[in-house]
Amino acid sequence: MNEIAAIGIDAGSTTWKAVAVDARGAIVASSLEPTHPRIEEQTGRGLAALRERTGASASVPVGATGYGRKRVAADRVLTEITCHAAGAFARLGQPGVLIDIGGQDTKVIRIGERGTVLDFAMNDKCAAGTGRFLEVILARLQVPLEGVAELVASAARPVAVSSTCTVFAESEVVSLVAQGEPLAGIVKGLHAALASRVAALAGRLGHEVPVFLSGGVARNGAMVQALAASLGRAPQVVPDPQLVGALGAALACRAVR
């Protein structure tokens, strides 16, 4: 196994991610699990397990980013914007606009040459523009994530969901079900509503550049299609989309070693 040059941790609001990279910046090993309320303890366990798997010594530098980054003992604590830009550029090798739909916020980052951040916009005031919007309402409808894309594909039409608040939207979809609206159409409408909000945010940073997608929602094919419809062009999903921030944190440490 390649010698580990750095470790990156992305302590997100819903998932905890870590990657170990070699001197070339390639991912050697990774971990991903639901975020525990005691992030400090989770990080200690996760780091120990990752070091054991990779043979990384205690001297290997650790970078931390994400919602819980300030609660993580690390050599460098880094902003999510910087890390996501660096991680996406490392995987794709080209500038563009990165959309990262996370559990707590949605980030749209204009990435320049060499992975620099040119501009960014965030939706962090309301869950309606984040992955939490889908998570809460799909759970209420008892629709598993694994079956979402197939369900949406079967919809004859999207059912409009007008509420811009997750709490109100949850009540609205329950009413739609009671009125006899088809479940597939409601779920398609939910994806369209979220995609519309995200596309409006992304539109501030340019329309003529490639669009990339990261975060846990990038694993949802229905969301990728909904974004393509709202943006007018298909976003390219970053490889290992949930590890982008952790990768950027690791690369930042590797660069200064």
How would you portray this structure in words?
The chain has 257 residues and is an alpha/beta fold. 40% of the residues lie in helices and 20% in strands. α2 (80-92) packs across α8 (244-256) and α6 (183-202) packs across α7. The longest helix is centred in the last third of the chain and has 20 residues, at 183-202.
How would you concisely characterize the structure shown here?
By secondary structure, the chain is α/β, with parallel strands linked by helices. The chain has helices at residues 39-54, 80-92, 131-140, 148-153, 166-178, 183-202, 221-231, 244-256, and strands at 6-11, 15-21, 27-34, 62-65, 76-77, 96-101, 106-111, 117-123, 211-214, 236-237.
Q: Topology of this protein?
A:
Elements: E1 6-11, E2 15-21, E3 27-34, H1 39-54, E4 62-65, E5 76-77, H2 80-92, E6 96-101, E7 106-111, E8 117-123, H3 131-140, H4 148-153, H5 166-178, H6 183-202, E9 211-214, H7 221-231, E10 236-237, H8 244-256
Helix pairs in contact: 2-8, 3-5, 6-7
Strand content: 15-25%
The CATH topology assignment of the domain at 6-89 and 242-256 is Nucleotidyltransferase, domain 5
Biggest β-sheet: strands ordered side by side in the sheet: 3-2-1-4-5
Query: Largest sheet, described in full?
Result: 5 strands, mixed
Helix content: 25-40%
What is the 3D shape? globular
- Overall mean pLDDT stands at 90
CATH superfamily of the domain at 6-89 and 242-256: ATPase, nucleotide binding domain
Structural class: alpha/beta
- For the record, the CATH class of the domain at 6-89 and 242-256 is Alpha Beta
Along the chain, the helix and strand elements come as EEEHEEHEEEHHHHEHEH
Radius of gyration: 19 Å
